[in-house]
Specification:
Layout: H1 12-24, H2 31-44, E1 48-52, H3 55-65, E2 73-77, H4 82-90, E3 94-98, H5 109-114, E4 120-123, H6 135-145, E5 148-152, E6 160-161, E7 164-165, E8 172-176, E9 189-193, H7 196-206, H8 213-218, H9 239-249, H10 252-270, E10 276-278, E11 291-295, H11 299-308, H12 334-340, E12 343-346, H13 354-377
Parallel strand pairs: 2-3, 2-4, 4-5, 5-8
Antiparallel strand pairs: 1-9, 6-7, 8-9, 10-11, 11-12
The protein binds pyridoxal-5'-phosphate.
């Protein structure tokens, strides 16, 4: 038995969609990309959608288009994928790591407020596990201090905050469609924003700063006459990836229901297990990307036991302020660092069966007993 931590759920539909693009033989940014953007926009109900080649590019592009660069600072929770930090430092700005709340492991708004300085230009909330951050408080702080808010919503496609989808409100919101996210395009991402001029700048920057070319490309043609006014990047999405995403969008409701069901089952089956805690998440409104538990003692020994028994686990994440590249500021974040010693991610993807989930939980229970007993004997 081998149970993977995360994986895409893809099949004949995605292959057929890719085949169509092969038959069309237009692999660049074409009509499929426009269709995917329309699909996401329809799903969210509002906003301008710009599809790109990765979630990391989406974050970088958003910050770049907001004019964030050298000398600027962006506040971001340390407990996130390194992509959030790299996207900030790629602009020349400095990521300012902030702590998380002890129960949810989401951005701590009080700590965020303390870190606002004249150099800070933006806040990057991360909807860790898919559970939305305190957006009302964060957006209101941003308004008060004149800051932009670029949400890292890589985990949170489909999640609701006060009844509204993440990506349907706010300032700028970035999604990822990499191979393990709620829906995949193979690799991909999207920026969502609500300002027409910003959207148009992001569109231009996505394609090497080439003005007016997007319209042509959506018709699967190109123009050779263009003017370049701004720094751009080759971050556009390919028709192949967009086609995969369109096939995935047809399955999104099933994916969401399955992910939520698996997490509810984990919570129920792990309840009352001494030394193991689950996060306080409402799976009626959160679409979970990862299932994180906290183990008071023997976390590493338990992870080794599970891995040795064919169950892949993860640790999300190494806090970024501990990476050599970002540790210069010498900040300590007590809640993040304490959590880092306890967190363990259990398998979560749509191809897990009920038996798989029960097997994982049983293995956690047996594993904990095994590592506790062997520790006591030492
Ligand atoms: C996946 C992810 C990203 C980046 O997305 P890619 O598409 O892999 O570049 C950014 N932030 C977080 C929290 C993620 O999990």
């Amino acid at each position: 038995m081998n149970i993977r931590l995360s994986k895409a759920s893809v099949g004949d539909e995605e292959l057929a969609a890719v085949k169509e693009v092969f038959d069309m033989c237009y692999f660049g940014m074409g009509s499929r990309v426009q269709e995917l953007e329309q699909r996401l926009r329809q799903y969210l109900g509002v906003g301008h959608v710009i599809a790109v080649n990765t979630g990391t590019s989406a974050l970088h592009l958003a910050l770049d288009a907001l004019g964030i660069g050298p000398g600027d600072e962006v506040i971001v929770p340390s407990l996130t994928f390194v992509a959030s930090f790299q996207a900030i430092s790629a602009t020349g700005a400095r990521p300012v790591p902030c702590d998380v709340e002890p129960s949810t492991l989401l951005m701590d708004v009080d700590d965020l407020r303390r870190r606002i300085s004249p150099r800070v230009r933006a806040i990057m909330p991360v909807h860790y596990t898919g559970n939305p951050c305190a957006m009302d408080e964060i957006l209101s702080l941003a308004g008060q201090f004149g800051l932009r808010v670029v949400e890292d919503a890589a985990h949170a496609l489909g999640s609701l905050y006060h009844g509204r989808k993440i990506g349907s409100f706010g300032d700028v919101v970035c999604f990822s469609f990499d191979g393990i996210k709620t829906i995949t395009t193979g690799e991909g991402g999207a920026v969502v924003c609500f300002d027409r001029d910003l959207a148009s700048l992001i569109q231009t920057k996505r394609l090497l700063g080439i003005d007016r070319d997007t319209e042509h490309r959506y018709r699967n043609t190109r123009t050779w006459l263009f003017a370049v006014h701004t720094q751009g990047y080759r971050y556009h999405m390919s028709n192949i990836n967009a086609a995969i995403g369109l096939a995935q969008f047809d399955k999104i409701e099933r994916f969401i229901a399955r992910r939520q069901q698996i997490c509810r089952d984990y919570v129920r089956l792990l309840r009352d297990l001494e030394g193991v805690q689950t996060l306080p998440i409402d799976y009626a409104t959160t679409v979970p990307h990862i299932f994180v538990i906290r183990i008071r003692d023997f976390r590493d020994a338990l992870a080794r036991y599970l891995n040795a028994n064919g169950i892949e686990t993860g640790i999300h994440y190494v806090p970024n302020h501990l990476h050599p590249l970002y540790s210069r500021c010498g900040v300590t974040l007590p809640v993040t660092e304490a959590a880092y010693n306890e967190i363990l991610t259990l398998p979560l993807h749509c191809d897990l069966t009920d038996d798989d989930v029960e097997h994982v939980v049983k293995s956690v229970k047996v594993g904990l007993r095994t590592v506790q007993t062997s520790r006591q004997l030492q």
